[in-house]
Automatic annotation (TrEMBL):
Listed SUPFAM superfamilies: Glucocorticoid receptor-like (DNA-binding domain), N-terminal domain of MutM-like DNA repair proteins, S13-like H2TH domain
FPG-type domain segment(s): 224-258
Keyword field: DNA damage, DNA repair, DNA-binding, Glycosidase, Hydrolase, Lyase, Metal-binding, Multifunctional enzyme, Zinc, Zinc-finger
Entry keyword annotation includes Chaperone: no
UniProt-listed Enzyme Commission number(s): 4.2.99.18
Record protein name field: DNA-(apurinic or apyrimidinic site) lyase
Family listed: Belongs to the FPG family.
One Pfam entry name: Fapy_DNA_glyco
Organism domain of life: Bacteria
Enzymatic reactions: 2'-deoxyribonucleotide-(2'-deoxyribose 5'-phosphate)-2'-deoxyribonucleotide-DNA = a 3'-end 2'-deoxyribonucleotide-(2,3-dehydro-2,3-deoxyribose 5'-phosphate)-DNA + a 5'-end 5'-phospho-2'-deoxyribonucleoside-DNA + H(+)
Amino acid sequence: MPEGDTVWRTARRMHRALAGRLLTVSDLRVPRLATTDLTGRTVLDVTPRGKHLLTRIEGGLTLHSHLRMDGAWHVYEAGERWRGGPGHQVRAVLGTSAYTAVGYRLPVLDLLRTVDEPSVVGHLGPDLLGPDWDFEEAVRRVCADPARPLGEALLDQRNLAGVGNVYKCELAFMARVTPWLPVGELPPGVPERLIATAHRLLEANKDRSDRRTVTAARPDRRLYVYGRRNQPCYRCGTTIRWDDRDERVSYWCPGCQTGPGPGTAG
């Protein structure tokens, strides 16, 4: 599932291509929107909210999309060949005279009134990359259920919006605890440092596609544990382990991280 920094970059790319321009192509390929025609309307802005994308359109309308596991928006110049996947995976096309935004494999695509946006994003917690980021509120929400495993608390977008599975694994490593450690068992001050680190990392990575959490100046080292199954830990040399009992695979270093393992939390 794309992380908040990926969604932020997608929104910026779409905003630069579409905002302030008249739609000359509108093709929404989901049954409930198949007859909707947005041509002749101006795109006002494209705004990220956590992992949600809000494309606001003249006339008080918002096209709401969510990428979930493998959805994507690609932007092409006029006449450029589309390369995001086969045609049957296209769910939305928004085109102007200069650019075309194509949404592939979008599991969520809704058209709603802009004033009704809270119905789809109002449940989200503080947005790590939003202008209204609230550190104290994010800490309060994450710590509200002391028995909840840390990984679950971080992934819950109602606590803070923008953390995905990559950051879940990396943040737990940087805090030196496993993702299954109950939040209430974190040492004093760790929840605050962890959430401050989450904000810092997403801010640092929002402008680059090669996401990094490793601070050492080595181009071959980008992430501490995520995706590094059976490789040695950069800190202690212990073999990185993984667990795939759900769709969000967890990676951790048993040498550096203390706490329960998978299936033992709670």
